């Protein structure tokens, strides 16, 4: 109880100094809990949607996958006769055929895309009685003829659609124009998909290109029949039906169907979840330095008090335990507040996703019991572990040393041991980075790179106090000497406790190292891709979108004036068997012969144009080396949904590129001999070359020709480079935003260190003021000290990050991205910004120091 009372007294006596450390714990725990609540809420939203839309038993083609569209762009189907067979099964109450396609685009009469802006699909289907499980018609009526359609309420609200508006649905099988005659509202939250419905016959003709077929069949169980029993009955009936193959169907209960959909969404959600938790972990790591500094300085300030406690009988264990109990209190308070703040962050993320087009209702807000427990345990454990070293140091203070105010013991040997360990770790990390940079394969080098990053980071953290002396002197010589005695005092203050300066700078170093690394990687990717586009791409225009190119858009492109040629580009699922008998399922690329001019791929053997001859193909150099394939060899190519061909290797292309790396080319004419017309995939991308001297006119004409198809973008090479730059820039900005949490925690660390340092130097400040140091000079001294510490951390972080980035680029070079580009404007901006961070962090400590009463400060014990 004595230890607890002492800890409570000390905790509340220094509550102001503990506040910033508590905020660091709060922010880190809040981000973890916010991530868990947000992802759990998204999972709940999808689970409810999947549960309510699934019928008791669903029958679909065996090869159908809920999250994929076949390579030909048209959903797999079942004949209508299957419904009659299923009706004969025991325990069937009703059977209904469904038509659904996620490979459509819906536009208004101004060719504005009615789809979601967040990447969610636009789904078209037939309105059935089963649709009423998840939706209800709130305006108008269900579609009854070829010119009528129904839309979901969310899409109608977002695009201000009204009854009578005419919309065009663009599908692989053609365009379908209809008037909106009804609006249906989801009974559960719609995460953002746009949904349109037609009557069954219209949906079959418009989405499937035929009548009498369905993409899935919904079966409802009779009273008292379980889903599992119904599935068994339907399976037996279909297997026994004349002409039916037992394995021709995918038959699922409602639970199995929902589980499959959940698995498809879950993989995407896991990426978001673990990425965000990774950034939260970085913030926790930075917070550790803040907590270590806080307790180290509090222990130093209570040296005499600890000595008295030891003198009157307190053991080392009790002193140690007293500090750890304070840490426990700090971690608990910060974590409790963090759990509450995490719920707020989750709601904020939901609102942000809503603005981006993904609707998430707070009614589905999911807070699992494990979330606050995880937040509390993580926050408390991290805080106590971070305080262990200061607590151990406090326990080692002898009563006599403390009573004569000798402070915590300065163990020179420990300092040398620390420096030796830091140098060893840094050396090992540097060696790992070198090994990664010289690796022959990116897959082998990536693991070594990760090891090098971890080792150099730990090494720099451990060796920070040793580096502080030299680096701070260099920074001071450049920035502080011009300020005379005040500048020199700021330098000495920063150097007074290298361990403290090193830990404070290390907190900032971690976040900035990641910023620098990602900046180098992102800039190098853009520069490499731009370089390859300049060297390799001969086409003037590139047409692509988030869906494969429908035939009607291809036809519009071909009719555009001013084009010398148009090139089709298709990817196909196929299995290749090399002469050594080994199979490879990597697929092939079918293109027009003009693609050899549109993309100038260097070859290591043969001639690429010959690969587009009948019965010929090319392979990549990596595949050729792995399977000992040479020009003139024959490969067996089994096309999915088609025949098996034996094709002669006419060229081997170099895989020292990022564009079409590993592609195996053959002509579309060759592919059409072995793949049925209804299985030929639509173009994934198309290229065009303008007639000489007509580039500008052809560009404008091509854009006008494809105005009716807004899902596709027409880009010249300049547009394509800018698009690539923008995409990588957006990704980096998102990452920087997440790293901002770690940087905020690091700034709190600088503020806390300075605030405690001011308290620690109260008498010294009073003496300086007594001998003539003005308030302005005092505040300037503290601000300069803060700037030096911030720039120390920035210099280490940026240097370390650029080293990581340069090494990562060497691995990217193995994948064809061979240009190293250091984004100096970004690096310089971050370095200068760090100085302003230091100034900002010093505002409150400097203001408080300036307000000190001189006599009271001198009299401080």
Automatic annotation (TrEMBL):
The MacB-like periplasmic core domain, residue ranges: 19-236, 504-700
Signal peptide span: none
Pfam families, per the entry: FtsX (PF02687), MacB_PCD (PF12704)
Domain of life: Bacteria
ABC3 transporter permease C-terminal domain segment(s): 279-399, 738-853
Topology with respect to the bilayer: Multi-pass membrane protein
TM regions (residue ranges): 274-300, 323-349, 369-391, 416-437, 449-480, 501-526, 734-759, 786-806, 826-847
Record keywords: Cell membrane, Membrane, Transmembrane, Transmembrane helix
Listed InterPro entries: ABC3_permease_C (IPR003838), MacB_PCD (IPR025857), Macrolide_Exporter_MacB (IPR050250)
UniProt entry tagged with the keyword Cell cycle: no
Family according to the record: Belongs to the ABC-4 integral membrane protein family.
Annotated protein name in UniProt: ABC transporter permease
């Amino acid at each position: 109880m004595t230890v607890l009372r002492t800890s409570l007294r000390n905790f509340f006596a220094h509550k102001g100094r503990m506040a910033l450390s508590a905020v660091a714990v709060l922010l880190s725990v809040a981000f973890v809990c916010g991530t868990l609540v947000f992802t759990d809420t998204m999972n709940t939203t999808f689970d409810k949607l999947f549960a309510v839309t699934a019928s008791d038993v669903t029958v679909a083609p065996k090869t159908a996958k809920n999250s994929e569209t076949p390579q030909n762009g048209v959903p797999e189907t079942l004949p209508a006769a299957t419904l009659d067979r299923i009706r004969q099964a025991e325990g069937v109450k009703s059977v209904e055929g469904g038509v659904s396609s996620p490979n459509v685009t819906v536009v208004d009469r101004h060719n504005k895309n009615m789809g979601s802006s967040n990447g969610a699909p636009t789904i078209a289907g037939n309105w059935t009685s089963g649709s009423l499980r998840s939706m209800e018609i709130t305006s108008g009526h269900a579609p009854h003829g070829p010119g009528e359609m129904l839309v979901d309420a969310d899409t109608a609200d977002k695009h201000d659609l009204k009854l009578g508006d005419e919309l065009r649905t663009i599908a692989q099988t053609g365009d379908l124009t209809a008037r909106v005659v009804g609006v249906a509202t989801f009974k559960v939250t719609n995460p953002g998909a746009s949904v349109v419905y037609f009557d069954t016959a219209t949906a079959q003709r418009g989405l499937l290109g035929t009548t009498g077929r369905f993409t899935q069949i919904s079966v409802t169980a009779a009273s008292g029949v379980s889903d599992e029993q119904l599935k068994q009955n339907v399976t037996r009936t279909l297997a026994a039906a004349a002409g039916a193959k037992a394995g021709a169907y995918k038959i699922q209960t409602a639970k199995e169907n929902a589980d499959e959909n959940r698995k498809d969404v879950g993989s995407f959600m896991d990426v978001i979840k673990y990425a965000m938790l990774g950034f939260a972990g970085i913030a926790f790591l930075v917070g550790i330095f803040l907590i270590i500094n806080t307790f180290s300085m509090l222990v130093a300030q209570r040296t005499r008090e600890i000595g008295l406690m030891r003198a009157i009988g307190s053991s080392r264990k009790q002193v140690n335990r007293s500090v750890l109990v304070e840490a426990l209190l700090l971690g608990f308070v910060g974590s409790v507040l963090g759990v509450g703040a995490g719920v707020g962050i989750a709601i904020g993320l939901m609102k942000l996703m809503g603005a981006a087009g993904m609707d998430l209702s707070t009614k589905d807000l999911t807070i699992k019991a494990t979330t606050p427990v995880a937040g509390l345990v993580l926050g408390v454990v991290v805080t106590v572990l971070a305080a262990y070293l200061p607590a151990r140091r406090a326990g080692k203070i002898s009563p006599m040393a403390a009573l004569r105010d000798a402070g915590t013991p300065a163990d020179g040997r420990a300092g040398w041991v620390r420096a030796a360990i830091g140098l060893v770790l840094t050396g090992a990390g540097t060696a790992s980075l070198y090994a990664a940079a010289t690796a022959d394969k990116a897959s082998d080098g990536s693991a070594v790179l990760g090891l090098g990053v971890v080792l150099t980071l730990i090494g720099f953290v451990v060796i920070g106090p040793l580096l502080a002396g030299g680096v701070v002197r260099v920074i001071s010589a450049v920035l502080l000497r011009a300020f005379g005695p005040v500048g020199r005092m700021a330098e000495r203050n920063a150097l007074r406790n290298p361990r403290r300066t090193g830990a404070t700078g290390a907190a900032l170093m971690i976040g900035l190292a990641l910023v620098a690394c990602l900046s180098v990687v992102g800039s190098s990717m853009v520069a490499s891709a731009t370089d390859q586009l300049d060297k390799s791409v001969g086409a003037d225009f590139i047409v692509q979108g988030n869906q494969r190119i429908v035939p009607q858009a291809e036809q519009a492109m071909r009719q555009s004036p001013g084009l010398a040629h148009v090139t089709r580009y298709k990817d196909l699922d196929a299995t290749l068997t090399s002469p050594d008998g080994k199979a490879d399922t990597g697929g092939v690329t079918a293109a027009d012969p003009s693609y050899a001019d549109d993309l100038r791929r260097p070859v290591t053997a043969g001639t690429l144009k010959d690969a587009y001859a009948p019965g010929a193909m090319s392979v990549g150099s990596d595949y050729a080396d792995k399977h000992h394939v040479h020009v003139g060899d024959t490969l067996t190519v089994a096309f999915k949904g088609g025949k098996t061909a034996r094709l002669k290797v006419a060229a081997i292309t170099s895989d020292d590129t990022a564009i079409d790396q590993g592609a195996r080319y053959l002509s579309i004419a060759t592919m059409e001999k072995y793949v049925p017309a209804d299985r030929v995939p639509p173009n994934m991308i198309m290229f065009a070359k303008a007639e000489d001297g007509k580039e500008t006119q052809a560009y404008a004409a091509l854009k006008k020709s494809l105005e009716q198809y807004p899902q596709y973008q027409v880009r010249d090479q300049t547009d394509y480079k800018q698009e690539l730059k923008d995409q990588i820039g957006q990704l980096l900005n998102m990452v920087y935003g997440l790293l901002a949490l770690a940087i905020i925690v690091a700034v709190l660390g600088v503020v806390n260190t300075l605030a405690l340092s001011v308290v620690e130097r109260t008498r010294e400040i009073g003496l300086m003021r007594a001998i003539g140091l003005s308030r302005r000079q005092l505040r300037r001294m503290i601000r300069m000290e803060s700037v030096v510490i911030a720039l120390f951390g920035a210099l280490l972080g940026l240097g370390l990050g650029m080293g990581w980035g340069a090494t990562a680029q060497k691995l990217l070079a193995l994948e064809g991205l061979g240009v190293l580009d250091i984004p100096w404007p970004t690096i310089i901006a971050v370095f200068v910004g760090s100085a302003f961070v230091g100034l900002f962090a010093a505002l409150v400590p400097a203001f408080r120091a300036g307000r000190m009463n001189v006599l009271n400060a001198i009299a401080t014990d």
